[in-house]
Amino acid sequence: MEKIAFKMCLAPGQADEYRRRHDAIWPDLVAELRAAGIRDYSIFLDDDTDMLIGVLWRADDHAMDALPDKPVMRRWWDHMADIMDTHPDGSPVVTPLAQMFHMP
Questions:
Q1: What is the reported pLDDT for 59?
Q2: What share of residues in the chain are helix, strand, coil (percent, to 5)?
Q3: Mean pLDDT in the chain?
Q4: 66: Cβ–Cβ under 8 A, 6 or more apart, which residues?
Q5: Backbone angles phi, psi at 79, to 5 degrees
Q6: Whole-angstrom Cα distance, residue 56 to residue 94?
Q7: Which terminus of the chain has a lower count of CB atoms within 10 Å, N or C?
Q8: Could you say which of 22, 79, 87, 102 is catalytic?
Q9: What is the band of 1 on the pLDDT scale with cuts at 50, 70, 90?
Q10: Would you call 47 helix, strand, or coil by DSSP?
């Protein structure tokens, strides 16, 4: 398993809506994420900057690179595009984060 972290930018004033949508995450999306090898996925919010920090564990043989081709992933991106920074194709703007410290 590999742990990765990344950041995304939430539109100002959209924290409650972001949480509401994720509290009602679609079961078929969760199934697709799990099938891609994603485990123990959390997203944190820095209220001061509206930055979202995602942290997840993924299998060594993960299939995350195939997720953009999945219809449920595309629908989720469309569902979230009005409250966060996205690319022209609807995918969220994601910046990988380098691990600087780890205490096992």
A1: 97
A2: 35, 30, 35
A3: 97
A4: 36
A5: -65, -30
A6: 14
A7: C
A8: 22
A9: very high
A10: coil
What is the C-alpha to C-alpha distance for residues 14 and 103, in angstroms, rounded to an integer?
32
Instruction: Specify whether the CB–CB gap between 15 and 90 falls below 8 A.
Output: no
Coil, strand or helix at 82: helix
Q: Is the Cβ–Cβ distance between 53 and 43 less than 8 Å?
A: yes
Which two structure tokens, joined as six digits, stand for 23?
């509290």
The residues that bridge with 56 in the sheet, in sequence order, are 4
Instruction: Give, for 56, the enclosing helix (H) or strand (E).
Output: strand 51-58
The model's pLDDT over 28-61, given as tens digits with 9 standing for 90+, comes to 999 999 999 999 999 999 999 999 999 999 999 9
Q: Check if 22 is active-site.
A: yes
The tokens 């993924």 sit on which residue?
58
Q: In 41-101, which ranges are continuous DSSP H helix?
A: 71-80
Q: Which two tokens stand for residue 59?
A: 């299998």
Six token digits for residue 68? 């953009």
